[in-house]
Structure formats: C-alpha cells, structure tokens
C-alpha cells in the first residue's frame, strides 16, 4: 500500500514578500534590495544567529525559508528531517563574485568567505547546522520548478524509511532576482501531498 503523505507547512519568498501557508508574514513589500530585505526578515523572525550575516544570498534565502517552515513545528536534533532543494541558477550569483575576485590584479587571491559558497548545497549545510540535522540531503539543478521530481523524491525517502519528514523546495537566486517555495512533507499534515497540489501551491501569487 502506497504511503499517504501530507504537507504540513509551506512558505513563499518573492518580490520582497513572505507568505507562510498562503498568508502574509510581512504584510508590506519593501522597495529595496535583497540584502536589506533579508535583514528585516531576520529581525522579524527574532533570530539570533550571527553567522547569517556571513552567508551568501542563496544561503540566506534558503535559511530564512527553512526558519519560516521549521519554526512552525517543534523540531529537535533527533528528528530525522531530510532536505531536498532545487534551483535553476545553482550558485552562479556567488560564482560571479568569486571569478571577479580572481580577475582583480590588485588583489589576486579570492576570499575564502566567498569561495566556500560556490556550491549550492552549502545552503543545505547552513540549515542543517542551525537545526542540527544529520539526515539525507541533496541539491539538484533543474530548468524550472518540477513538482513531479520533488514529489517522487520525497515520497521515496519516506517510503524507504530514509527520513521521517522532508524539507523540500525551489530556492533560486541570481543577480537580485529570487524565487523561493519551501515546504515540509511527512505522514502528518492537513494538505494532501500530490503533484497537482504542489504545482498549485507553487503558483500562489502575493
């Protein structure tokens, strides 16, 4: 018998706005860049995690979305929460900064603080460190949000007892353009976890 899976919490971060379960977390949009917006969200979430300010923008985006989802539920380091994220641009935004530092003849050696973020799965690492997660994780590069891929991968992890729940999503950041949709899947929740439902939830507008 196929395992019944559900979405318990989901979050969108787009256009300087955040929606949690379809409702505004920050009611007003801010006509500003992501750096300022992310600091505002950090403050509104009452976070105390100084390492946040050293992260690249992709990691900040994923980190904030994960906080919005996981903080809605009680989690601890014993929870077997897998993480499966996807995007289109990989770590390209940070890669450009790294390349620029290499090409700077006056300061040839690139900054290790930038270099460490030239892999997209570092975003997963930042979430895992914050929430003390030691379970399965993967970051895939796709052309666009793929509900079928995420649905099937999450269900496979749950059906094969690789995880008790899965934090899934699309986290794309490139040149100040960003789009994030993150959600948690398990055998407990109010929203049936289906491909069509994921497609509809992703398309929710501000």
Detailed description of the structure:
The chain is α+β, with helices and mostly antiparallel strands. The chain has a single domain, classed as 3-Layer(aba) Sandwich (Peroxisomal Thiolase, Chain A, domain 1). 35% of the residues lie in helices and 25% in strands. It has helices spanning 34-44, 57-70, 92-103, 112-115, 122-131, 147-159, 195-202, and strands at residues 6-14, 17-20, 23-26, 81-87, 137-141, 165-174, 177-186, 191-192. Strands 1, 2, 3, 4, 5, 6, 7 and 8 form an eight-stranded mixed beta sheet that branches. Helix 2 runs parallel beside helix 5 (122-131).
List keywords for this structure.
alpha+beta, 7 helices, Peroxisomal Thiolase, Chain A, domain 1, 206 residues, 3-oxoacyl-ACP synthase
The CATH superfamily is identified as Thiolase/Chalcone synthase
Fraction in beta strands: 15-25%
As for the number of domains, it is: 1
Radius of gyration: 17 Å
**Main sheet specs:** 8 strands, mixed
What is the top-level CATH class? Alpha Beta
GO molecular function: acyltransferase activity
InterPro entries: Thiolase-like
Protein name: 3-oxoacyl-ACP synthase
Summarize the topology:
Blueprint (H helix, E strand, L loop, with lengths): L5 E9 L2 E4 L2 E4 L7 H11 L12 H14 L10 E7 L4 H12 L8 H4 L6 H10 L5 E5 L5 H13 L5 E10 L2 E10 L4 E2 L2 H8 L4
Parallel strand pairs: 4-5, 4-6
Antiparallel strand pairs: 1-2, 1-7, 1-8, 2-3, 6-7
Helix pairs in contact: 1-2, 2-5
């Amino acid at each position: 018998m196929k395992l019944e899976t559900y979405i318990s919490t989901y979050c969108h971060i787009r256009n300087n706005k955040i929606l949690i379960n379809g409702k505004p977390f920050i009611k007003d949009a801010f006509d500003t860049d992501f750096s300022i917006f992310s600091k505002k969200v950090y403050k509104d979430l009452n976070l105390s995690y100084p390492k946040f300010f050293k992260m690249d923008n992709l990691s900040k985006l994923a980190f904030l979305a994960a906080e919005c989802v996981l903080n809605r539920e009680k989690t601890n380091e014993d929870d077997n929460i897998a993480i499966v994220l996807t995007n289109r641009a990989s770590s390209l935004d940070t890669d450009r900064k790294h390349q620029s530092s290499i090409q700077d003849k006056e300061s040839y050696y690139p900054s290790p603080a930038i270099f460490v973020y030239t892999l997209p799965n570092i975003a997963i690492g930042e979430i895992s460190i914050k929430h003390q997660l030691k379970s399965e994780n993967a970051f895939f590069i796709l052309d666009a949000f793929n509900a079928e891929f995420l649905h099937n991968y999450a269900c496979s992890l749950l059906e094969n007892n690789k995880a008790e729940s899965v934090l899934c999503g699309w986290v794309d950041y490139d040149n100040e353009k960003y789009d994030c949709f993150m959600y948690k899947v398990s055998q407990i929740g109010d929203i049936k976890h289906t491909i069509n439902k994921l497609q509809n939830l992703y398309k929710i507008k501000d």
